[in-house]
Input
Amino acid sequence: MSNDATAPKPTPPSSQDAAGEAARAPQAPKQGAAGLPRFLRPQEPAAPQPQPQAPARPSLKPKPKPKPKQQQQPPAPVIAVRPIAEPAKMRSRHWRLMASFGIVVLIPLLLIVAYMTIFAQDQYGSTTGFTVRQEEGGAASEILGGLTQIVGGGGGGSDSEILYEFVQSQALVNTVQERLDIRSHYAQNWPYDWVFSIWPDASAEDMLWFWRRIVRISLDSGSGLIELRVLAYEPEMAQQIAQQIVRESQDKINQLNAQARDDAMRYAVDDLNLAVDRLKSAREALTRFRSRTQIVDPAADIQGRMGVMSGLQEQLAAALIEYGLLQETTNPNDPRVQQAVRRIEVIRDQINTERNSLNDNSATGDGEDYPALIAEYESLSVDREFAEQTYRAALAALDLARNNAQRQSRYLATYIEPTRAETSEYPQRIGIIAMAAFFLLVSWSIMALVYYSLRDRN
Output
């Protein structure tokens, strides 16, 4: 028999074997209902896999007992994964924000740029600078104790402040208008350039407002320097206006000088008259005192009385010496001894009389005591000396005021003559446009932030 006949034929796999092999074969991950891979979905308990059954054979062994079924594990918690974000898209609020930026920033900025480049006319500037100088005092003023400050010598700083206010005053505007007719000059471009021009029928108050726009003035309060710049459509007009301002300022300083000189002379004369009256009153009081007391000088009278008392003291000493010698050389009953004793008593009585006369009210004509008269005389003497010193100071002040009145103590020093421009530098278009863009952008940003903050709160 051949090998092919003896070889056993392969048996086709049964249905149970095919099911087991299919269960053991690896399977591709399937997508769940939520569109997720199976390894991201919660695990489910595995179903019992069918075991392949071998062909039934007779066996003499007892069948094993069936094992108890294992308890199923609870399902794992579900992990939620958010879907991937979609690409950003323009929404209605974004379009509104861009529209507000165009309305608030772009359109006004374009209008400003168009006006500055098309309508704004060129302007020329003229610069000048001046200050108030004061004549320095000499040695005579220093000797008089600074009387220059008393008779009207003010500081330069206050005069510069006066000029600073005068340049911006209505009086100067009216004067320049009468001399140069600045209203017609600055109204020639109206209403084409309405921002940098004045209307033809402007009032005096309107001209003052416009004057402070075209005349830019600065003051250094420490040094008193004043610098100003005048803007005009023509360089000649700007220079003429600056020159007119310098002339009017010089006239104002001269007016202040004249007023200060007049005030100084008037005050000096008034002070001198007052000093003369005080000196007359002091001397008249001293004359009345001398007429009442019959004493020209109490000090000299006292010195005379003290001289008399000194002479009496010397005579008393001499008499005592003579009396001592007589007692040693003669008899006590000698008439010379008696005469010496009498002389000593008389001298002592006279000394006592002189001493008592200083405190006796009968020593003066009006019954006053001598110490009170001396005190009154000294008071009158002090008043007279003070009146004399005041009179001399008033005379010196009057002489100084008269000397100052003969010369100009203040004058205007122009350290920058009014210039004449060759090129137009105003208005500063780039600076104005940049500033306008900055403020428009800041305003739009603030409004947008306020709007969104209120919306988020609501």
User: Anything to note?
Assistant: Residues 192 and 285 are 85 Å apart (CA to CA). The chain has a mean pLDDT of 78. The beta strands are 124-134, 215-220, 225-232, 410-416. The first helix runs from residue 3 to 6.
